[in-house]
Amino acid sequence: MARLADYFVVVGYDFDKRGGSEGQGRIHQRFPEKDWEDNPFPQGLELFCQPSGWQLVPERKPPSFFVSVLTDINSERHYCACFTFWESVENPQLQKGEPSEADEDDGPDVLQPAQLYAPKSLVLVSRLDHTEVFRNCLSLIYTVHVDGLTVPMETVIGNLLTCIIPIAGGSQRTITLGAGDRQVIQTPINDSLPVSGCSVAQLFRQLGIANVLCLFCAALTEHKILFLSSSYQRLTDACRALLAIMFPLKYSFTYVPILPGKLLEVLSTPTPFIIGVNSHFRSETQELLDVIIADLDGGTVTIPECVHISLLPEPLLHYTQTAISMVLDPELEVSDHAFPPPSIQSATPKIQDKEIRAVFLWLFAQLFQGYRWCLHIIRIHPEPVIRFHKAAFLGQRALTEDDFLMKLLDGMAFAGFVSERGPPYRATDLFDDLIANQVQRIRQETGDSHKVMKHIKELAEQLFKNENPYPAVTMHRVQRTAENVHHRLPQNCFPHLDEVTVQLFIDHATAKLKTAPPVVKAELKGMVPSGPPLGDIVDRNGNVMANSARRLEVVRNCITYIFDNKMLEAKKLMPAVLRALKGRAARVCLTQELNLHVLQNRAVLDDQQFDYIIRMMNCTLQDCSHMDEHGIAAALLPLVTAFCRKLGGGITQFAYSCVQEHMVWTNMQFWEAMFYSDVQKHIRTLYLENGEEGDASTPEVEGMGGQVSALDLASEQSRLWPTLSKEHQQERVQKEESTVFSQAIHYANRMSYLLLPLDTSKNRLLRNTGLGDVESVSNSYVTNSIAGSMAESYDTESGFEDAEVSDVANSVVRFINRFVDKVCNESGVTNEHLKALHTMIPDIVQMHIETLDAVHRESKRLPPIQKPKLLRPTLLPGEEFVMDGMRVHLIADGREEATGTMGGPPLLPAEGAIFLTSYRLIFKGTPTDPLVGEQVVTRSFPVASLTKEKRISVSIPMDQFIQEGLQLRSCTFQLIKIAFDEEVASDLAEVFRKHMHKLRYPQHVQGTFAFTVGQSAKLVVEHKTKDKNQSLKTLSKNLVKSAKRTIGRQYVTRKKYSPPTWENRSSLQSEMDEDEISVSEEPDQSSLTLSSTIRSSDRQTMSNVVERACCRDYQRLGLGTLSNSLTRSKNEPFRISTVNRMYTVCRSYPGLLIVPQSIPDSTIQRICRCYRQNRFPVVCWRNSRTKAVLLRSAGLHAKGVVGFFKSPNAPTAGPSQADSTSLEQEKYLQAIISSMPSYSETSGRKTLSGFTSSHMSTSGKWGSIRGSGRLSTYNPDVGNRLAGKESPQANGGPTETYFLRQQRAYLYIIGDKSQLKGGKQDSFQQWEVVPIEVFDVRQVKNSFKKLMKACVPSSPSPDPNMTFHRCLEESEWMNLLHRVLQVSVLVVELLETGSSVMVSLEDGWDVTTQVVSLVQLLSDPYYRTIDGFRLLVEKEWLSFGHRFSHRGAQTLTSQSSGFTPVFLQFLDCVHQIHLQFPMEFEFSQYYLKFLAYHYVSNRFRTFLLDSDYERIELGVLYEEKGERKNPQVCKSVWDYIDRLNKKTPIFYNYMFSPEEEEVLKPYSFISNLKVWDFYTEETLSEGPSFDWELVRGRQEKPQEEAGERQETTAPKSQRRIVWPCYDSLSKVVPDAITKLLQDVQNLETELGQPTEKWKDTWDKIKTSQRVESRLESRNSFSSSLLMSSNLSHQRRSQGVYLQESGVGSSINLALDCEVSATSTPAAGRPSNSTLYSQFQSTESENRSFEGILYKRGALLKPWKPRWFVLDKTKHQLRYYESRQDKECKGVIELAEVESVIPGTPTMGAPKNIDDKAFFDLKTTKRVYNFCAQDSANAQLWMDSIQSCLSDA
Question: DSSP character for 436?
Fold first, then answer.
């Protein structure tokens, strides 16, 4: 029973305190005057009566009523019902005649009203929440006052304060206050269920379903919630509704449904709250950053950005939303029906309210199902103490990841729920019933909305009944005031009441109560049922495979094998077991199986068994989270102290010392849960034993057998507790307490086992976890202060001050102390016992440390586990170990091939060693999976290609945990991810990193492997090394010295004088250079030949320069010669200038340059200043047909651009010098233009009608078998004259008319868009600028990084969308290739149509080089041969100064610039072209990969340094020609390739069969580009195959061994497995031709013949085939080697296509005649679709004809047989000593041959030979006499030579 009202208060306006802007209220009277003992009077009531502030108003307002809620210090809620009405008062200011603030504000002329109204409130304070009753009572008092009824007010109030009603129980109570009124109070049946009226339904109507659910989740996850409304009662209702739907959880934070304006600062409190505020104060709430604001009037919920609300887990959220919408809007379901039922009536708000609450009850039943199975009961007497095992609950629900549940279970509300609902013996309510009996039903009905609704309606009915137990309520009868009362004239004020009268009433009632018999309400306590256990019901989103019985069987078998000592069997199963242990079921199975092998808490194993068991335990624990939600660590805890092995000296090592490195052991919550569950077990056994001794509870307990859960026992015990005697009770309390105490000691031991590392000097555990900083492990526990202080004092007194150990010991002691404090305080251990524990702990830890030391010492003496032997890698000649092998594990990265996920056993992880040599980083080892244990895994890359190194920490499933690791990424597309074995000291790993860095970034290029090779790597690289080639070195030194001097002088002059013109400068200079090579600048420079300008001492060097500067190529192209006869050079348009021979004009250009004939060197020196890096335009190639030239240069300096492109006659302001240079530039360009024949033909005319369309014929192949629909490859912004105003031709070639328009420029300048802003185009100029967008070097760098991550990911991508192709696309690498190819094809087309092109981009050494080289490759077939490609790279990349060292970040100085693979990009472009035109290249794809690998490997000197100048300075440029001390060490990659090419056809493309003068035009669209397999392939069997000696060396041994073996054993199968990522496919499955060549060689060796070179064999076959195919008729297929038809100008992909890594030794011959016959040749070329051999490859030109001829020597020398080769391509006749010889003895240039005539035999000629076999060859210099074997042969030779001459 409780008082209906505790206090009645009258609060009015306080006229005395009217200072300030706001008025105040004061309490006029309160009854009773004295506080009740059980319920003190709440303070600050007057604030809550007028929450918006006390004010006088000019107009009377209607009376108002609301209920606010106050919470007292004991968190009891008091409901204050306020009834406010307004009384008139005279305006005090008018009376006193003094101005108020209002006057000052409003100005003096505003009239003050004479009549004002002051608020007065009648307040009832109660602990019960009967809003309607309060409203009626207060209205009645007001009515009595207004209507002046005869009833004395004191009586009414006295009755009100003495009215006593029951709190719950569902009774009806009729009360009357003695004023002719009567009302019925209904109490709820069960007061644990909240009473909500219709507030919940109203809240949903105001805010909507999603918003309320959002608030619901926010309140449960402890966010701050603020309601706004202009109605106070609605605020109260909304808050009440929110609490009602949270049932069965109770809100325990600040709860203020109506907050007065004066207390608004409460909103900035840091704790969560639910508060309501009048919307009048909306502006004040704007700056709250972390408060969720719900506006009830506007229906919005505003969530600040920084607040993240975790919502209910799906699918629960969805189900809940659906259910609520069905309650609120039942018509929704049938709104689409054709025949909707007659209008569905929504339930009344009251019923709807209960239905919504039912939905939330149903939701909580699903959220908390099975919670009682996760309760631990730690004490039963004197009070039950209960803890909730959160991890187990989440684990069984498979919701460990769920944010909402985690927060909910950690929250205060849930803690309250456990302590209130945990006890097993108490009164139960609706929720307990739901959890116990209806979970099954809920589970079955999920998803069936009708059944769910039915259930919800049943629940709603119960809730409704609870609030309204009697449907027919007796009528209320309360007198209301007349409606218009407040309009009547003011009546007198509310009377002052007589306190004495009221007090008498109260005293009288209290006395009566005392005499009345006490009301005894039997509390219906009972056992709380637990409901169905959780079991595996919720494993639906667990692992599907987790429970497969096969896996469990594997685990069981393996364990059986281990204990039966069948170690080999166990070893085989191990990998499968470790994989199976990923699943939860298998881990549980493991713990159960291991339990079976423990006898009396002990299981002694031998070393190997111990090792396996430890491995399995580690693997099991490794996948447990730190909270151990599946209880795996808990199940293993007793096992790790049971399994042990004997070490020497009677010492035992337990398993726990090997499984410590898991997070779970340092998690305080884990230990608590474990402790509580053990205590529960012990207490259960305690009472079960008691029962058997013959206690009252015997029969039931025994009947139920062992099934009795601890909670049931506890409930039984709680029921019996009152019946026991005091002694019995005392005894039980003591028994329980000592049980807990003994467990605490036990756990202190256990924790010290798992927290103290075996080697106590290493504080490894503490470093990795929060243990070192103990405070951080769990901050939510406040240690009991007594215990805390005890802990410290005992700690210091324990006296063990062992220095090394102390830090480990102390931190462990602190951790255990904190644990003990917490659990003992919670489970009521006495203080004496606690003190005893605190004294014990340091001793326990210390003792344990001592035993551990002994174990550690002994375990070190154990023979180490047999680890695989470290395999040593083979090294290159000259390569040396820098660091010997360190044992590591190679770990799988993101590539799936080797891990076995794509089929096949896993090759990784592998165990082996990492070696650091002066050249490479090599891992060599064997896979840990025993099924592939025989294979050797090798992964290596050159140190110089390392791009990123990062430390990682790795865990390996197989072994103990290996902590430190490294991840090393290389730009050869390799990633080595290693973890150091525990035997590798961490400082050693550090040394390894330092050495690696030193090798990767040497101080100077001379520190790279290419220079240090052969010297001892241990030596510090000296900068002054003696050079072998002394004379050359001095020469090059002189050269550089003079260059430096000259450069120096030029700068000096510039400082001393400021000469007005350039002419003076040159004369000054020439005076100053007396002794050195003169840099004089006379205008007739061109007449000086090379020999006259260079001193004799430098001639040898110069000849080298000539050799190097690719003069041969220039001569081949007819771009100039270095001959002495000046006759020829005058009429040549170009000349070779030596202006840069000292590298003074441009450091990064070669020494000899091609410039227009008419431009003197002096001009060049001036022009070069306009270009960046002085890289002025020079000619690098000429089209032999159109004579158009290709030039390259850097972009212009910004200042030069505008001046350069201004029209020449416009007056230019500014210094004349700038003007003159821009004129000189124009002159230079004009000279280039005039060199073109087309220009001289049409010199006067600006139109090009004279330019015949034969010039324009779009020759070249646009190959595509589709042949049509190809869009133009141009950018839309290619330049105004090129921007295709007409559509391109169908097959993508430029249309005829396309270039035939009035103004086709003679010279196109491809420039950078950003550089060319502001340049004005002149209508008469013959050049035109094509602005294009160039990508930045930075873009290439970033794109390459992303490409590497895509091709070689470091770990499998967690995001399923980030597939390989998506990553590839995001890298934009293909995009960059597309742009380079696009520009190159554009340039090729322009050159084809007879315009010259100047590529002038960036600094002229990156993109420019790429474009220029690709243009030459596409236009000139010579560059597509092996020699030609070498020349192209030497000329364009090396001589023209691509900055290899800088872009490759090869030294310490360029480290910061990072790796930018410009050259790799070029090679990739070549690879793309190669794929599209497989028959046009003499070299294979492997050749490109080889270069791509070695240009970053630093094995050769070819790609080091940034320019020829730097190479000369170091003396590297010409030494290759000098004699070599060490023939093994190749310094140039080209020499190496030549040597290799002689031995093996690896670089040769068998499909090479080029067409004459073929111009290639590849597709450049991204869809046509393929990912280069260089980026993705790897060969784990031998590492990269580009260091040929290593691969070859490995191959031969196994064959010999196999040979020996085969004799002894039975014949073996010839088949073998080929793994894509392990074997080198080209070797295991070679293509047919390589295979046949190999077989031929093998046969020759067996027969003892001298083996023939592969090239000779190949050429022989081809020549014989050509002869055959000539003899055969045209249409029949010849029986010769390989034929294929009509491959002329298609992309010839229907031909024989031998993939380089051919997948099988059969050749697919696409001899599909129909297809080939109908395929149309590309436009404009005659089809020569004769059948010819596919393989009439280069050799058909390179060696068009060959054989033995006798040649007569020069004067008086005899005739000698020589092997002659006629070469069409190089246009020469070469002769060799013998067929095998590769060194050419002499060359006859066919260009110089005048005639071939039959000859006559002369003196000394060979005998017995037909006279007709002699013939003579007449050249400009001499006559050669030849003699063939017979006349036919001679005729053949003469014909061949003649045809070569006529072709030319």
Answer: I
